[in-house]
Every structure is written in structure tokens, then in C-alpha cells.
């Protein structure tokens, strides 16, 4: 639940993020990292990373 609040992952938006996956991202891949903003009562403040596209071969651990 804390990750939902910190990351402002509102389930009412159709967000399906329910688990953590470890990736090995190759050098040179562009990604965006920053702090999650507050949204509709969710405090935000957690770290977030956005990758425009994820290659399934990058997955190391699918917990």
C-alpha cells in the first residue's frame, strides 16, 4: 500500500502496476527518473522511472 501512496498509483486510472520487476537495462537506453507528484489524496514523493519501451529480455527477476 505504501508504494501506491508514494508513487501516486491511483487504481481508478486503470493502473495495473501490482509487482516489482528487476531489469538490466543496456547502456545507452534513454529513461526518465524523478519524484512522483501528489495526485488526488495520494502523497507522492516516491522515486519513479519511466521507460518508453521495455524489452522482455531485460527482465532479470519477475517476482
Features:
two-stranded antiparallel ribbon, 63 residues, 8% helix, mainly beta
The backbone outline, from C-alpha atoms, is globular
Describe the largest sheet. Answer: 2 strands, antiparallel
Alpha plus pi helix count: 1
Q: Could you tell me the mean pLDDT?
A: 80
Task: Provide the β-strand percentage band.
Answer: 15-25%
Give the total of domains: 1
Helix content: under 10%
**Cα distance, first to last residue?**
17 Å
Can you write the helix and strand succession as a string?
HEEEE
Write a compact overview of the structure shown:
The protein has 63 residues and is mainly β.
Describe this structure in words.
- This protein is mainly β and 63 residues long.
- The protein has one domain.
- It has one helix and four strands.
- A two-stranded antiparallel sheet has the order 1-4.
Topology (elements, then pairings):
Elements: H1 2-6, E1 21-23, E2 32-35, E3 47-50, E4 59-62
Antiparallel strand pairs: 1-4, 2-3
Amino acid at each position: 500500500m505504501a508504494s501506491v501512496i508514494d508513487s501516486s498509483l491511483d487504481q481508478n486510472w486503470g493502473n495495473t502496476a501490482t509487482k516489482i520487476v528487476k531489469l538490466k537495462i543496456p547502456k545507452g537506453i534513454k529513461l526518465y527518473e524523478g519524484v512522483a507528484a501528489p495526485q488526488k489524496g495520494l502523497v507522492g514523493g516516491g522515486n519513479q522511472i519511466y521507460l518508453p519501451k521495455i524489452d522482455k529480455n531485460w527482465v532479470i527477476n519477475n517476482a
